[in-house]
Amino acid sequence: MKATFRIGGVHPHDNKQYSVHQPITECPLPAKAIIPLVQHIGAPAQAVVEKGQKVKVGELIAKAGGFVSANIHAPFSGTITKIDTTIDAWGMKMPAIFMDVEGDEWLETIDRSKDIVRKLDYDPKAIIDKVQEAGIVGLGGACFPTHVKLLPPPGKTAEVLIVNGVECEPYLTCDHQLMLEHGEEIIIGIQLLMRALNIEKAIIGIEANKPDAIKHMTALASKVLGIEVKALKLKYPQGGEKQLIDACIRRQVPSGALPIEVGAVVDNVATIYAVYEAVQKNKPLISRVMTVTGKSLAKPGNYDVRFGTPLTEVVALAGGVPEDTGKVIGGGPMMGRAMSNIDMPSNKRVSGLLFLPEAESLRQEITNCVRCGKCIGACPMGLEPWLLSKQAWHSMWDEMEDHNIMDCIECGCCQFTCPSHLPLLDYVRMGKAKVGGIIRARQAANK
Amino acid sequence: MNLILISLAVLGVTGLVAAVLLYFVAQKFKVEEDPRIDEVQEALPGANCGGCGFAGCRAFAESCVKADSLDGLLCPVGGAPTMKTVGEILGMAVGNIDPKVAVVRCNGTCEARPKTSTYDGAKSCQILHNCYVGESACPFGCLGCGDCVAACEFDAIYMNPETGLPEVDDEKCTSCGKCVKACPRNIIELRKKGPKSRRMVVMCVNKDKGAVARKACTNACIGCSKCQKVCEFDAITIENNLAYIDYNKCRLCRKCEDACPTGAIHAVNFPPRKPKAEAPAAPKAAPANNATQPLNNTKQNGEEVKA
Amino acid sequence: MKQLIVSPAPHFHSGDSVRKNMLLVIIALLPAYAVSVWQFGWGAFITTAISVAACVLFEWLIAKYILKQKSTIGDLSAVLTGLLLAFNLPSNLPWWIVIIGALVAIGVAKMSFGGLGQNIFNPALVGRVFLLISFPAQMTTWPVPQGFATSYVDAATGATPLAAMKVALTGSDSMMSAVPEMWDILIGKMGGSLGEVSALLLLAGGIFLIATRVITWHIPVSIMATVALFAAVTGWAGMLPESVCTGEYVMLSLCTGGMMLGAWFMATDYVTSPMSNWGKIIFGVGIGVIVMVIRTWGAYPEGMSFAILIMNACAPLLNLIRPKRFGEKKKA
């Protein structure tokens, strides 16, 4: 019996067959690039370059706007043309640096060879500084700056590093492919983070639908003391931080607390690969592996895309937008956001592009709630989505807070499973935003 | 026979004891209440809409009775006549009250504001506003999901299927302000109703630069300040590329309407222009029933315009 | 490029629908229904046909002319209500009584509350209980099952096993001979309402529903466990006639009357049962206790309908029980 988390969960069809085992291909450089300044959770980065300035690949172009923020480095060499706002894929404005790409000239300090560096005797502080300097954020989806996680608050100690190789979102295969192609680097990255956190134990959680990755990583991990690979039962949302901790070490993070409360630090395999590159190769985070996939796409696959590359170019590489496209989703189908245009540049946040045909894009007709309770059974946080969505509809914010709305991880299980096709999560998410605002206002008033 | 007598006696005595008990309990826990609260509540419309800012009509009546003066206390639904009655009950003077009406300040019709995407989520402006810019490219305009329609308790606001925009029925609108709160984009404003419901409104809240705004919507205010220049009463201010007409200063001369190059300024409820003016922009936005006039307010408004 | 469709996540759906669930329940009822037709012949067929047709017709009429809303007969819930109502009726019931039952079930118990999802009580059971109280004689005379040769002309009627048990429990040992053999009870060779005869196939249908995830195990299992326990305690307490052993009584309690139909198909009705797992278990235990109390001490030989309806009324209260939250600390 494979381990999994203990409450709720659903079993969507994983649909990974389109892009699985497609080798990671580098995306060609664009002529012009737009690099957004908000690529992470927290304060926006502050641009440190000026119009007309020439930059090389890897050069710092925007500084973190606070502790919870991340540096941004030039993914291309070329000239900065302007610092202005651009429209993101949901139509909102965001600040960005515009540049013309000229050649591909890298900073000399970056090691571009393919050799694997195995040096480990770093000072823990040096590793964390390097991670912070390189602008590494959680590449699993939330984009929370990684260095913040590596510095536990006073009084809390980390006991175990949990590595997220779950990739529970249907369709996405980038982490899977990364583990197959760069497994060794990831193991070194894990060792570096264990050193930085001063811990002896790490668990790599991989879902059972990736048997080759489990085998590969187990073989690699067996050579290193303290790293264990855990095959997990297929169940969504296993890649959720709290769910993964429960599945791997049988501890449940209390409501409102961070994973460090139960001694766990969770990082995605892609993040760990970035840590390896930053520490051993001196390469800041300037690209990520993206899955471009869909039933009707000509060449679905996993692409290594530098941030700032227009998504249209990535799509062209995968064979262009299919005729029957109804919806383009940034990320996976359970938590990703549908885009209203694909002119946006790629960034740290977009882990995949999914093209859904028109027939699968529209929601079904909504019928009455029949109180089947399936949403309660599916909710991995043990909430009552049917009730919360009703409360949100009636603006009952106090009652929502009382029913622990802030525990919601917006995984979408409730809406996925609802036989009445109710937009449960739409309302719950709206209510969560509202209640979150009320709570923050109250805390500010109490200070 | 005996049985009936016994039952009657037992029931009668029980009833009597209960009545006596209730009387004493009621005496003991009696709450002294100002009788005027009931009177004031009687005078209020009783819609419990919360437009006054209190939790229902009773709460409003209580605060009216407690207050030293009626300044700042207004039942928007009842308006001036109701407040006058309340003032009479409490023996206090009531200030001048302008009747107001909710105005949807967006004229981004389907033709003027082309769709850039199709929204298929829950039909709620708040939800759409939280995740997307909307179905068009305008980040300020009406989202068209009808949160205001759902919020209105007086059936005074409805969606016009042709324009995709909500329209307010002047007759039914009580200016309770629920739609103003419901709109996540702050498009709806409570404005002075105006004499014969006539008023000038900038039907746009787009703060983008002219070119950007114009690209998203051909009816947008581009902040060109032409209206400001023609206005003889300093009623128009331009801030953040957006014109705003101060309804207290506006004298309804309609010069700004002619000056506006995009048709963002609407003259509402004016009779159609005579000869030369070709197709004025007004009728588009005017509600269907502009023939009737509010009975109570006409005179008072007339006086105000003169003043 | 053409316009894209946007909506908040998730963009994926399980493909589950109300219609699909209703269809699966109907499928799960069919084997038991086949036995009923085999046992009671044309009577079973006609009663069901009238009941289903009347339920669908009433729902359509009420939706169209009284509520003036979109018709909901497409979700098959009215078909299911009609089928369940027929399962609760004797096969020799006059046709006009069946139609009255359908009218009460759909008109009073379902549509007057606002249609599917809004009703407090199980519509089919409200229909049945209304008929049971209004037409007690017709509702409690069952034909002796003889297959298609079942006579509906002369009133050759037989007692149900539960009615015989009831007499036996009150001390008259002689009636035990009227209780059929265990095997006959399991396959359905006994008198009774349409759908309550084949315990084995109803159980199979219930297990099919759990396997297809239409229902969860909580309600049926807790009902049957409670009933079994109650029956066993009755046996140990020496309340049974001497000719019945405790084990036999437990089996009889579980397999006769509306127990199987009620536990697997009626009590598990989505709308009228609680939603959280603990709520479901309490709901089931409540039904089990009430049904056994009625069977043992009540005026009626069978109390499944009443038990479910009483617990239906408690369902909103049981919905206040919150599911176990993630990371919730156990009280020290």
Task: List its traits.
heterotrimer, A: about 450 residues, alpha/beta, Ubiquitin-like (UB roll), Rossmann fold, 6-stranded mixed sheet, 4-stranded antiparallel sheet, B: about 300 residues, alpha+beta, 3-methyladenine DNA Glycosylase II, Chain A, domain 3, Alpha-Beta Plaits, 2 domains, two-stranded antiparallel ribbon, 9 strands, disordered C terminus
How would you portray this structure in words?
- The complex is a heterotrimer of chains A (447), B (307) and C (332).
- With 447 residues, chain A is α/β, with parallel strands linked by helices.
- Chain A folds into 3 domains: 30-110 and 284-359, Roll (Ubiquitin-like (UB roll)), CATH 3.10.20.600; 112-280, NADH-ubiquinone oxidoreductase 51kDa subunit (Rossmann fold), CATH 3.40.50; 374-446, no CATH class.
- Chain A has helices at 124-133, 146-150, 174-197, 211-221, 241-249, 269-280, 311-317, 358-361, 374-378, 385-393, 397-402, 413-417, 424-446; strands at 25-26, 32-36, 46-47, 54-55, 60-63, 72-73, 78-87, 93-101, 160-164, 201-207, 227-232, 264-268, 287-294, 301-306, 325-330, 337-339, 352-357.
- In chain A, β15 and β16 (337-339) form a beta hairpin.
- The longest helix of chain A is centred in the middle third of the chain and has 24 residues, at 174-197.
- Chain A starts with 24 loop residues before the first strand and ends with a helix.
- Chain B has 12 helices and 9 strands.
- Helices cover 34% and strands 12% of the residues of chain B.
- In chain B, α2 (35-43) crosses α3 and α2 (35-43) runs antiparallel to α4 (79-90).
- The model of chain B is unreliable at 277-307 (pLDDT under 50).
- Chain C is mainly alpha-helical.
- Chain C has helices at residues 18-40, 42-66, 77-87, 95-110, 123-134, 136-139, 161-169, 182-187, 199-211, 218-236, 246-255, 259-266, 277-297, 304-318, and strands at residues 4-6, 142-143, 157-158.
- A two-stranded antiparallel sheet of chain C has the order 2-3.
- Chain C starts with a strand and ends in a 14-residue tail after the last helix.
- Classes of the chains: A alpha/beta (447), B alpha+beta (307), C mainly alpha (332).
- β2 (117-119) of chain B pairs parallel with β1 (4-6) of chain C.
